[in-house]
Each structure stands twice: as C-alpha cells, then as structure tokens.
Amino acid sequence: EIVLTQSPGTLSLSPGERATLSCRASQSVSSNYFAWYQQKPGQAPRLLIDGASGRATGIPDRFSGSGSGTDFTLTISRLEPEDFAMYYCQQYGSSPPWTFGQGTKVEIK
Amino acid sequence: QVQLQESGPGLVKPSETLSLTCSVSGDSMSGNSYYWGWIRQPPGKGLEWIGTMFRTGNTYYNPSLKSRVTTSVDTSKKQLSLKLTSVTATDTAVYYCARSPGLRRPFDFWGQGLLVTVSS
C-alpha cells in the first residue's frame, strides 16, 4: 500500500497570499496517477487536479499541480476567501488500495 | 450532469450489516466506461477508499475491508449498493458514493454523503 504524507498539517495564510501544499508518497506513483481534492465542512470532496497537473472541469487557473514519482505539490497562486478549506491528495496508480493523504487545512491567518 | 445521492439507515448496531444505496441521475450508467466507487470518512478524519466497481460486475476492494465488503451496480435501476458486514464503532463514518471516468482516474462527481453511526 502506498502511504501519502501531506505537509504541513495546517497552513495559516491571508487572502491574496500564495499557498504551497506538499504530498509525499512512500513509493513512486505510476504514470502520475495522482489527484488533489478540496473539501469544505459538511461537503463532499471536490476534484481539483487530475493526472498530477491537469485542472478538473471548472477549476480556476489559480490552482495548479506539479510533481512526479514520490513528490507532488498543489499551489494556489492567490488565495481567495472561498479557498480556505481542507485539501487531500490521492493516488490511484498502483494496485489497490487507492489511498488518500491525511489532509492539509488552509486557514485564514 | 450526473448527480449521486446516498440513502440508508443512519444507525446500525454493532455486529450487524451496514447497507447503503446510491441513486444516480443524469447519467445512463450503461454503454460507457465509468467506474463507480464508495469512499468513507470517519468524523473529523481523512478519506478512506472502500472499493470501485464497473457496470459489468468487476470489483476492486480495499484489502483492509475486502473480507466484509460487497458492492454492486444495477444499471436498470441506476443504483449502486454497498454492504459492510460485522460492523463495529470504527465503521462510523460519512459514506460517499462517487463516479470515476476510468479505473485509474480520480472521482469527479460525489454524492453529498451519509453519516452512518454504529452504536447499540
């Protein structure tokens, strides 16, 4: 099983600032089968990034994903008020189980 | 666009079977390459993948739950089902159904989730 470790656990930033979220895998994720989700309280997760760097339908271009192998990054170029939420990474490339990271909370400073 | 809605009992007794249904609207479910999955989230915790299935019956389960999980797809009723046997308090979670464009693709549409509490 591939274990995903997200850092930091909490990111305290102000609107307009840049957010950089990291996710490290315990072994290489094949073919960049890697995604990022946003989750707000009481809501289902929302897909942001597919294939490590492709934005999902309707996702603003301030969200970008990068990385390969074992190290992946989600960057939010300028935080909007609606971006303060939990963020999860997921890999779906190896044999099951597909796994999620434990989450990074982006909170208002 | 596709919409998913989970339904089922919100309270299950320990050692019993948790049974949930997910109703799918806005998608034919047949004649396409979509996969359908179940994911859960204990209160205040992260996400755990339970399993993914195709309309033909192919299923892929989390090894940690495999001995207790059964999922199915009924394209005529446009429903998914989840059964989890011998539940304990650690199975208390919000259960989500979701759609994936392919086996090795992320989940692009999710249900709103259903909280299931395991308690006597």
Describe this structure in words.
- The complex is a heterodimer of chains A (109) and B (120).
- Chain A is mainly beta.
- Chain A is 0% helix and 49% strand.
- Chain A has strands at 4-7, 10-13, 19-25, 34-39, 46-50, 54-55, 63-68, 71-76, 86-91, 99-100, 104-108.
- In chain A, strands 2, 4, 5, 6, 9, 10 and 11 form a seven-stranded mixed beta sheet that branches. A four-stranded antiparallel beta sheet of chain A has the order 1-3-8-7, with no helix packed on it.
- The model of chain A has no long low-confidence stretch (mean pLDDT 95).
- Chain B has no helices and eleven strands.
- Chain A binds chain B through residues 1, 31, 33, 35, 37, 43-47, 50, 56-57, 88, 90, 92-93, 96-103, and chain B through 46-49, 52, 60-64, 96, 98, 104-108, 110-113.
Quick overview:
The complex is a heterodimer of chains A (109) and B (120). With 109 residues, chain A is mostly beta strands.
List keywords for this structure.
heterodimer; A: 109 residues; mainly beta; seven-stranded mixed sheet; four-stranded antiparallel sheet; 11 strands; 0% helix; B: 120 residues; globular
Please state roughly what percent of the residues of chain B sit in beta strands, choosing from under 5%, 5-15%, 15-25%, 25-35%, 35-45% or over 45%. Answer: over 45%
Largest interface: A-B, 25 and 21 residues
What is the straight-line distance between the termini of chain B? 39 Å
User: Mean pLDDT across all residues of chain A, rounded?
Assistant: 95
